Amino acid sequence: MSRIVISGASGDLGRRVTALLSNANPRHELTLVTRTPDKLAQRETEGIHVRRGDYQEPDLLDAAYRGGDVLFLISGLNLGRRVPEHLNAINAAQRAGIRHIVYTSVGGVHPTNPALSAKDHCQTEIDLRDSGIAHTILRSSLYSEIVSQILVAPAAQAGVMAQATGDGYLAPVAKSDVADCAAACLVEPGRHAGAVYEITGPELFNFENIARLGSEVFGVPIKYERVTSDERLAFFDSVGIPRTYDPSMPPSPDGHMWASDELVSAEVAVAEGYQALLSHHVKLITGREPESLRTVMERVKTRRYDEIGAAS
Known about the structure:
Elements: E1 3-7, H1 12-24, E2 29-34, H2 41-44, E3 49-52, H3 58-65, E4 70-73, H4 82-96, E5 100-106, H5 116-131, E6 134-140, H6 144-158, E7 160-163, E8 169-170, H7 175-187, H8 189-192, E9 196-199, E10 205-206, H9 207-218, E11 223-226, H10 229-238, H11 260-271, H12 281-286, H13 293-300
Parallel strand pairs: 1-2, 1-4, 2-3, 4-5, 5-6, 6-9, 7-11
Antiparallel strand pairs: 8-10
């Protein structure tokens, strides 16, 4: 039985994957690594190890990863600083004797992708390959829950969804599908060694399509308005969202820590076609079809984004 380490375990994805693994087989030997162990103290009563770890502190990671076979490396949030942080984790995994890493990347990774997040992930994928550790890369599309509750729900109130996404397409994916894929790869790492998966939903949408779907689900007319990247930045400035990510900045009203440079660069990446990816990898990994964007919208439309948990 592989000893699985989940790094970044106190976040939503880490909690989902922990629940999947422990519910499927309580005999899984799990170690949860987090900067905030107190948030996972309950798990220790269930026989799960909880250790403090921080991507900025390699010594902590050495101790946290020791004894593990498979590492679930959930990407950090420090945009522009993640590359050295992730490299710290990869190097610590080498020293700790980790034999396989499952890494959460992002859809559309390419050296010329303008999305700031994609640039970070592109370099970490290179570092992971260079490490010599067996690995699996999960490139997830934009969460369907973000499309529904961060983009469509406010537009349902305003009547307009203004984006710098042009006529670009993407295939939003449900959080539960990403978690299911990750759990499957962690349980059978040998089966997925060397694989790079594009984790997408079942349909490609442009934002005209998304606005139309949102109108049907929320029961109000929503118009999609194409705007420039400068206009989007000006809008985010007007509502007080900072341009640059800072780990010490306060969360937005929806509970997330957004920075407009990242958001707008991601929209431009959609407009330029980097997110126009549709795969059947969810079914390949899990044996079942991914959840549709419509179904996710119907399921979460009455909830705030930060209130959407595994049971939502």
